[in-house]
Structures are given as C-alpha cells and as structure tokens.
Design a protein that fits this description.
The protein is 61% helix and 7% strand. By secondary structure, the chain is an alpha/beta fold. About 2% of the residues have low confidence. The strands form 2 sheets. Strands 5-4-3-6-7-8 form a 6-stranded mixed beta sheet, sandwiched between helices. The longest helix has 40 residues. The protein folds into 3 domains: 435 residues, Amino acid/polyamine transporter I; 157 residues, 3-Layer(aba) Sandwich (Rossmann fold); 62 residues, no CATH class. Helix 3 runs antiparallel to helix 12, helix 4 packs antiparallel against helix 13 and helix 5 packs across helix 12. The protein contains 25 helices and 8 strands.
C-alpha cells in the first residue's frame, strides 16, 4: 500500500497465486534432481555461466531474506513496546528502525552460532509453533469477520489506472526511472506489472523447498506436494487475508502508522475491549516474531546449502567446505554469509522498504532463471517425470508445456518491470550480482588449475574411535548392517532402503578398509589412512542414494585384515540383527554363506543370532541364518512332518503328541546313530539325500 495505494491487497493475492505456480516449478525440478535448487537445474539446462549468474542473484535474495525477516520481527516488537509505553503514559518512545535493526543483529548472531554448532531446530518445536500460528490465524480471521459484520465495510478498490496511486518520493518513488514517463498512467498492463513488482516481497521461501527436499522422508515427492499445499493455504489465508482485512478495518487516517507493523495495527483496530485487543496484540506479535526469527535461520541454512553446492562443483575452493574441527559444520561459509547479512542490516539502518525493494531483485531473477531452465529441460531431457507443471498439450510427438511457458514469461516480465521501477534495488542488485559472479569466475579458474578432482564430493568429519559401538555410530540395537565397498554397486543398500522404515530401524553403511598384515601392527591408523578419497566418493554416493529415497543412514569405516571376521565382529559390536552384502564376484553365494558361518563360529561369546542377506545385481535375495535358528521348512517337508505326526497320534492315543515331539525324537535318534558304529552309514545316506534334492532345496 505504501507504493501503490489501497489496491495493494489484490496484488498481494495475485502474488500468492503466482507463488503457487513457482512452487509447482520447484516440485518438478526436485522430482528430477534430489538437490534441485536453482544452481543445479540451471546448470543442467543452460550451462555453468548462466548457473553462476542465477546463483549470484539467489545469494542476493538470501543475504537480504535474513535481514528483512529480522528487521520485520524487530518492528513488530518495537510497535508493541511503544504501544505499551503509550498506554503506561510514558514519554519514552523507542526508535523503530534502529531498535529493529539491533534486534535483527542479535537474532542473526544467535542463529549463526546455532548453525556453527550444527544443532538442528526440533521439528516438534516447529510443529508446535505452527499449531500456535494456526490458532492465531483462526482467531484473527473470526474476529476480523465479526468486526466487519458489526461495522460493515467495502472491499478494496480493484486495480485500474484510476485506482492505483503511485508513491512519490526519493529515487523516483514507486515508478523509479519511469517517473517521468506517461506509460504507467496510460497503459493498464504496465500499471498491473508495477503493482505486482512492488508486492513481490510477499513471495519468498520457494527455494527452501529445494534445500529441504533432500531431508524429506519417504515418499519424498508426495510429501513435498503436501508441504507446498500447506504453504499455499497459509499464505493465501494469512498473508493475503491480513492485507484485505487491514484495508477494510484499520481507518485510512491511521493506517499509514502501521505500514511496518500491519498485523499489530489490525489487532488494535478490532471490535472489543482494550484489554482483550491488547492481549491479542501481544499474542500476535509473539507468534509473528517466532515465525520471522525462524526465517532468519532459514536464510542462513539456505545460503549455506547453495554455496556448498557451488563449492562441490569446483567453483569455490574446497577450503570453504572444510568442516569445523569440533562441530563438523561448514563454518567458513556460514561466517561469510552472516557477515554479509550483518553488513546489510547496518547499511539499511533497519529500513524494511529499502530491504524489500532490493530483495525483489534477487528473488525474481532467480525464479525466472529457474523457470527458464525447467522449460529448456522439457525439450533437452524429455523423459518421464514424477511430476509436471500442469497445462501440457501435444501436437504430434511434440509436447507444448503451456503452463510452464506462461509461468516463465510472467516471471521474466516482473523482472523487466522491476529493473525500471526500483532504482536502488537495480543498482545494488546488479552490483552485488556482478561482484559475486566475478568472484565465482575467478575462483573457478583458480580451483580448476589446482585440479581439485574431488571438489564435487561431500565433506566428512572423521571421528576416530577404538571400537564400533551403537553409541559411537549413533544407532540403536537390532540395526541393519549394510556392507558397502564399491560406489558403483550400491544395489544392496538400495534394496534395504526400499523396504526398511529408518525411523523404526537404523541402517548402518559400513566400509572395510582392508590392510596388509604388516599394516595392522603396533601403530594406530590415522583417520586419513582409513578415510581416503575412495571412501569419500563411496559415502557421497551412499548419502545421495539415501537422500533420493528419503531415508536416513549412518556411516562407518573400519580397518580389517580378514573380511568375514571383521564383518561379524562389527555386527556383534553394533548389536546388529541383520547383515546385508552384495554378491561376491569371487565366490558363489552358498560358499560365501558357508564362509560366513565358519567365521560366526569363531566369534567370542555371547554370539549374536544374525540374519545374512546377500543380494545379486539383478535384485535376487538370498537369506541365511547364522547361529542357532529354526529351520525354514519346505512345503514338502512340512507335509512329511505332519503325516508322521498323524500316524503316531493314532498309534499312541490317548497319549498327547505334538509336531515338535516328532522333530525332537527324530533328532535324538539321528544323534544316537551318529555316536555308534553307524556314523559312516548316516553320512553316506545324507550325501545321497542331498544329491537327490539339490535342484529343489531352499537355501538355509
């Protein structure tokens, strides 16, 4: 409303609908790439240069998102405090911008330290905040509707050349470099674009969908769609609804006082006693501050994720991704991002309008490049997708992605109008983008010269320990131990992740670093000896596979001199219940299982009962049991046992006999025969039996 007058709610509503289409863009790209952010998608579609330009604009967005959220939270807080001071008849008035900036700095520093430590915010805590927010939104909507019913009101004027009132001020006001042109006053379409361009601040957070997609649980894409719907409904009801209610309820004479604290002004303008409105005002501000403070953290996390992807691709030196010695986080990237955010807060002096105008530059250009990239990929990689942006038509064999094209054109049009109407944002945004792009270009050349062959790999902190244990690996008992040895043959890990719910049963991916007998001497191996570039590549691929399936895995590496002794001792130490391997290229599966059984016999007591699963590349599963276990009987063997039981039951009546009595008696008889002179005869008959049933025997 500050820039375009009372028609602003309609533009906010339109921006919320556009945001929903951008979310559809991200859902399609995430279905193609697990790490489907702007950089990855643009690079796949249009090459490295445009990808670096896109991520430069995106970094401008992220660097501004934190300050905007922190300053907005500060202004809500300052507005409430000044209201309370006024009601207390105090002459003290807190300066809005500088106090809000101070709060934003404190909030940024707090979340910087939380990210340095790597302490993830509790999902349960976030869910509780959403519950409270939902209560607040429902109460506000109901109270606003009651207020409108009591007082009566009219909808805000529809956007038209006569109703749009452009702000006149410094740097061309709402029109920027078009302030001397007649086009905004004579062409309605341009006026609509200008209004939408000034409402872009209401659309944010879509790139976060790509950042969190790798963490979303299985099934990934359906869960992402649900999250997108929840975000859309919240933004439609809360963001768009609040602007409509504000224009209809807050009197025109005082509404300008609440442009930086709109929800607070709305709470104090409702029908009801002052004490109740004040209590609701405090409630609303508390919820708003919690949500906006969370957005500060999201901006830091998002920036960290984007720069990590850029560094993985060799554009930034690997030095940036070096993990913190104590916490294991990419602290150098976090430090860089937070310094830029703090500098932005200081330079803006807490002016949310300056921050918002600059933010619009970065967010729109990154969205436009993302839309264009997804559109290009429809033709360069036309394969089947888990999800497609709707409105697709076919002419012969050619697909026409009309919906995707319209979204992309709309975003590009908004970018174009913003270039001419936002002088400060255009100058600062272009300067920032050019500087970051230049840094990327220079850094990439230096990095390539140094032949950083493993720049695309994830970075790991290796924590040495004497022995594997559930505590050291971070797993519970009865876990599944999956042996991984070759990053090109992770089919056994994939098969386990397809069937296991990792929220209920932990999965450990263990790699054995085989050493010569001489290498297992008196000196302890250093982490670098156990964890080389080979292990780094292997674990990067393993994590990527787990992310794609929306599952969690735990990683471990250990030195070994003999394969099966090391595997089973690891399973014993980790209290695993299942050991999973891929088929050996050197031994048949039955022989591999026999060797495993011999190694199990050599384990120290207490020996664990283990299930051994060996997968072939084609997906065939072979199950064996190590240690005492109930045999898996074939249907023919069960019929044989049951027939003997029936015959003996009839002959022994009225004595009661069970199936296990038959088995016990037969085993005792067999043992008796093996202890006397008939052992050779028993062995001969057993060989004949095995030869007879070999073709139909179920592996044990």
């Amino acid at each position: 409303e500050h820039f375009i007058g009372k028609t602003a709610p309609w533009f906010i509503l339109a921006i919320m609908l556009i945001a929903a289409t951008v979310a559809a863009l991200y859902i399609e790209s995430c279905g193609m790439f697990v790490r489907g952010g702007v950089y990855r998608v643009v690079k796949e579609a249009m090459g490295s240069t445009l990808a670096k330009f896109s991520v430069s604009a995106l970094m401008f967005d992220y660097v501004l998102t934190g300050p905007i959220s922190g300053v907005s939270a500060g202004q809500y807080l300052v507005g409430l405090l000044n209201e309370l001071l006024h009601l207390a008849h105090s002459k003290l008035v807190l300066p809005e911008n500088s106090t809000a900036a101070a709060f934003a700095i404190l909030c940024t520093l707090y979340f910087w330290w939380e990210n340095i430590k790597g302490i993830h915010e509790s999902s349960e805590k976030a869910l509780r905040i959403m519950y409270v927010t939902t209560v607040m939104v429902v109460l506000m909507v109901l109270w606003c509707c009651y207020t409108l019913w009591v007082r009566g009101a009219h909808l805000p004027p529809l956007p038209s050349l006569h109703n749009i009132v452009y702000y006149q001020g410094a740097h061309g006001g709402a029109l920027g470099w078009l302030h001397k042109s007649s086009l905004p006053y004579t062409i309605g379409f341009i006026g609509i674009l200008i209004g939408l361009g000034h409402s872009v601040l209401a659309m944010s957070g879509e790139e976060t969908m790509a950042q969190v997609y790798r963490e979303i649980e299985h099934p990934k894409l359906p869960n992402l769609k649900k999250a997108a719907w929840v975000i859309f409904l919240y933004s439609l009801v809360f963001t768009a609804g609040a602007t409509f209610f504000a224009v209809m309820i807050i009197p025109d004479s005082i509404r300008a006082q609440f442009q930086e604290n709109l929800i607070g002004g709305l709470a104090m303008s409702l029908v009801g006693p002052l004490w109740l409105k004040l209590a609701f005002h405090i409630f609303v501000v508390t919820v708003g501050v919690l949500m906006l403070a969370g957005a500060v953290n999201t901006a830091i996390v998002g920036s960290n994720g984007v720069l990590n992807r850029v560094s993985e691709d060799g554009i930034l030196p690997e030095w940036f991704r070096k993990p913190h010695k104590k916490f294991g986080t990419s602290y150098r990237i976090l430090n860089l991002v937070v310094v830029l955010q703090l500098l932005t807060i200081v330079l803006s002096r807490g002016d949310v309008f300056v921050l918002g105008e600059a933010y619009a530059f970065g967010v729109m250009w990154s969205f436009s490049m993302k839309g264009l990239a997804v559109l290009v990929l429809r033709y360069t990689e036309p394969g089947k997708r888990e999800y497609k942006v709707p409105l697709n038509f076919r002419t012969g064999k050619t697909e026409i992605p009309l919906g995707l094209a319209l979204i992309t054109l709309t975003l590009i049009a908004l970018c174009g109008i913003n270039l001419f109407t936002k002088e400060v944002a255009t100058v600062s945004g272009l300067a920032f983008t050019v500087i970051v792009f230049s840094v990327f270009e220079i850094s990439e050349k230096i990095t390539r010269k140094r032949a950083s062959a493993h720049a695309e790999l994830d970075q790991f902190n290796v924590e040495p320990g004497d022995d594997l244990s559930p505590e050291s690996v971070g797993v519970g008992p009865e876990n599944i131990l999956v042996m991984v040895r070759n990053y090109n043959t992770l089919y056994n890990l994939g098969a386990v992740l397809d069937r296991v719910d990792t929220r209920k049963q932990d999965v450990v991916a263990l790699h054995l670093r085989f050493l010569g007998r001489a290498g297992a001497g008196e000196y302890e191996l250093s982490p670098e000896q156990l964890f080389s570039s080979e292990e780094q590549t292997l674990f990067t691929r393993a994590l990527g596979l787990a992310e794609k399936k929306g599952k969690t895995i735990h990683l471990a590496v250990a030195g070994a001199t003999e394969k099966w002794d090391a595997i089973l001792r690891a399973a014993q130490s980790l209290e695993s219940s299942v050991v999973v391997l891929g088929a050996s290229p050197n031994r048949p599966v039955p022989e591999e299982a026999w060797v495993a059984g011999q190694a199990w016999e050599r384990l120290p007591h207490p020996k664990p009962q283990l299930t051994l699963e060996i997968y072939s590349p084609g997906g065939q599963e072979n199950i064996f049991y190590l240690g005492p276990h109930a045999p898996r009987l074939t249907p023919k063997e069960i019929d044989l046992l049951h027939g003997i039981w029936l015959e003996l039951s009839s002959d022994l009546a009225p004595e009661e006999i069970h199936h296990h009595d038959v088995v016990h008696f037969a085993l005792e008889e067999l043992r008796g025969e093996m202890t006397d002179s008939r052992k050779e005869e028993v062995v001969r008959r057993m060989k004949e039996h095995l030869h007879e049933i070999q073709t139909r025997r179920v592996p044990q």
